[in-house]
Design brief:
The complex is a heterodimer of chains A (288) and B (82). With 288 residues, chain A is mainly α. Helix content of chain A is 72%, strand content 0%. Chain B has 82 residues and is mainly alpha-helical. Classes of the chains: A mainly alpha (288), B mainly alpha (82).
Chain lengths: 288, 82
């Protein structure tokens, strides 16, 4: 790893160095994270951009809600109403308890809008914010990653949040005793010999649900970001070669195509994360 | 060193290739069923479409995670021990 980080300071980084540099977070240790799991590291860029997007989403919704009218709605109000109705329909279809929906419905809407905004950071030109940040700090190899959902810490944080909501509803709906009973008797049945197997299965289910929930969003956004980097590299390679003009045009075409396809992925992944949140909370309401 | 890089290149190719096979078969089966179902009952088309896109995202995810990991192997190679 050392080659990429230190050599990236040179004026013309190689392709590998460029990508490694772009995949390094601005964190509290000022260099790349060494261990896979290290709870003492804070990724400032992920925190900053996720909170910024959250505030932006809240502000936008607040602006719309303040000027809401029961007459002919404006375009923005109509769009937000469509969004609200969509989330509400999905919530009604999956969670049948009206009382839980009072909390879980807004949660699903928040998750959708927030993740959509965070994913949309991918549409900004790849080098725009990192270069601005390098200008501001004066350090021309300062690290910055702008997509909070392309950071595993961000997505797993959200999926663990969903897990906590699930556990809360498990206890609330079934009671502590009922839930513990279910942990040991579902899915195979109530027999003392089957208790450990059942418990193991339940734990694996919770773990797999949470990990795949976070990994799915992370994997999609991370792969998308990397492909944007590769396209940018293709554009950056034009100066050195004879066929450079074609590479330069190619990077514009490839970039546009990928960006258009990425709109689908961004919206779809936000939708999937929301739907799975609803499904998991809905599962907490069913007793076996 | 060289053969580590070679193996990583092969691994990245396998990850993407096998993932693509699986995802394409999955999407193909599901899309075919969706077309079939909506030909039989066109009034269900909208309800099915939402579910189809949801499942398409779910099927795609494993493949895209694979692409992400393969790209990471290719460019930020974690196997460069020396």
């Amino acid at each position: 790893m050392a080659t990429g980080h230190e050599a990236a300071a040179a004026n013309a980084p190689t392709a590998g160095e460029y990508i490694v540099h772009h995949l390094t977070h601005l964190n509290s240790t000022a260099h790349a994270q060494k261990n896979v799991i290290d709870f003492s590291v804070l990724n400032y860029d992920t925190l900053f951009f996720s909170i910024l997007m959250g505030v932006l989403g809240l502000f936008f919704m607040w602006r719309v809600a303040r000027s809401v009218t029961s007459g002919v709605p404006g375009r923005v109000q109509a769009a937000v109403e469509i969004l609200l109705e969509m989330v509400n329909d999905q919530a009604k279809g999956i969670i049948h308890s009206a009382e839980s929906r009072k909390f879980v419905g807004p949660l699903a809407l928040t998750v959708f809008v927030w993740i959509f905004l965070m994913n949309s950071m991918d549409f900004l030109p790849l080098d725009l914010l990192p270069n601005l940040w390098q200008l501001i700090t004066g350090d021309h190899h300062a690290y910055l990653r702008v997509v909070p959902t392309a950071d595993l810490n961000g997505t797993l944080g959200m999926s663990i949040g969903v897990l906590l909501v699930c556990l809360y509803y498990n206890v609330k709906i079934k009671g502590l005793g009922g839930w513990v009973h279910e942990l040991f008797t579902a899915p195979f049945g109530s027999h003392p010999l089957l208790y450990p197997v059942n418990f193991l299965m339940q734990m694996i289910e919770f773990l797999a649900k949470t990990v795949s929930h976070g990994m799915r969003l992370f994997g999609n956004m991370y792969a998308g970001e990397l492909i944007f980097m590769l396209i940018a590299l293709m554009g950056a390679a034009w100066a050195g070669t004879a066929t450079g003009a074609f590479l330069w045009i190619g990077h514009i075409i490839a970039g546009s195509i990928w960006a258009i396809f990425h709109i689908l992925i961004v919206a779809l992944q936000a939708f999937i994360f929301m739907m799975l949140t609803l499904v998991y909370v809905g599962q907490a309401h069913e007793s076996h | 060193m060289e053969h580590v890089l070679g193996f990583v290149a092969l691994a990245a190719g396998l990850i993407i290739g096998l993932g693509a096979i699986g995802a394409c078969i999955g999407i193909g089966l599901m899309g075919g069923k969706y077309i079939e179902a909506s030909a039989r009952q066109p009034e269900l088309m909208n309800a099915l479409q939402t579910k189809m896109f949801l499942l398409a995202g779910l099927i795609d995810a494993a493949f895209l995670i694979g692409v992400g990991i393969a790209m990471m192997f290719a460019f930020a190679n974690p196997f460069k021990l020396i």
